[in-house]
Design brief:
Length: 289
């Protein structure tokens, strides 16, 4: 049994193995050892890409999937996360995928005897998103070492940014951040977007997470796009080989303009495709001895 709570608990070799396994699945590798396993997807926060790509990954592997409805569960009667998880364990489920708004929620689940895969915790960790981002970068460049990445936007509230910054540094990538200063939490060196466009291999945009900070940023959306967003004019300043990424969902005409979402440098929908194969690899790893 192998949990996946945070990428910090994995070695660089582990990361490469998961990505290579995901690429093998994308290239048609078949794996039937998990057929008939039962996985419950416990999402306590809204999700489209992570939730449904886990479902597709499970179905591709012959896993029987169950999707938990928090709004119609005993959570609304005061049941704790631990007791909910122990219930699914007691019912005979073989593993769980959990997304929860509490940072490091998994610390209270150390006694659970079935594997748990973290689908995102608060503003802390999003391991499978980082893995699919890394897979996309490896497919594009064939390496990580020496690549320059700018992560742009709502750094402070982004579990994607926090996970990626840590992991990319471990893989010898050069990472900086950009965007409004009120979203700068000191995770990496802050640079002005217009000053670095022509030097970056990857521009990774982040959604402005209005729901996490409880107020709309004081800058109007049109002004945010003008100052910090990815527009066609900024795309023209990028290296020929550079790519644009975004974990999605994206706020069109805020952090990214409509005509950039699917431009020739965008890999946003490729990231979504890769999410299925990364999550297949993570599920396979969960049951390895």
């Amino acid at each position: 049994m192998k949990n996946l709570f945070s990428l910090k608990e994995l070695t660089v070799l582990d990361i490469h193995r998961i990505i290579d396994e995901a690429i093998a699945f994308k290239n048609g590798k078949k794996f039937t050892d998990l057929k008939g396993k039962k996985i419950a997807n416990l999402f306590f926060e809204n999700s489209t890409r992570t939730h449904y790509s886990f479902i597709v990954a499970e179905q591709n592997l012959g896993i029987i999937d169950t999707n938990f409805n928090a709004a119609a569960s005993s959570v609304n009667k005061g049941e704790s996360l631990y007791d909910t998880v122990r219930t699914f364990e007691s019912l005979g489920y073989d593993g769980l995928v959990i997304r929860h708004p509490q940072n490091n929620y998994f610390n209270q689940l150390e006694d659970i005897s079935i594997p748990i895969m973290n689908g995102g915790d608060g503003t802390g960790n999003h391991p499978t998103q980082s893995l699919l981002d890394l897979m996309t970068i490896k497919e594009e460049f064939g390496k990580f070492d020496g690549l320059k990445v700018a992560i742009v936007g709502d750094i402070r509230h982004s579990r994607v940014a926090h996970t990626n910054i840590d992991m990319m540094r471990r893989l010898n990538m050069e990472v900086c951040i950009s965007g409004p200063k009120e979203f700068d939490d000191g995770s990496a060196e802050h640079k002005e977007l217009n000053d670095i466009l022509s030097d970056m291999d990857v521009i990774m945009l982040l959604r402005v997470q209005y729901e996490r900070h409880g107020y709309e940023i004081q800058i109007p959306k049109t002004e945010y796009l003008k100052q910090y967003g990815m527009t066609k004019d900024r795309v023209k300043q990028m290296k020929d080989t550079a790519i644009i990424m975004h974990p999605a969902p994206f706020n069109r005409k805020t952090e990214i303009d409509d005509d950039v979402v699917e431009c020739e440098k965008s890999r946003i929908f490729k990231q979504m495709t890769n999410g299925v194969f990364v999550r297949m690899a993570v599920l396979k790893r969960a049951f390895e001895v």
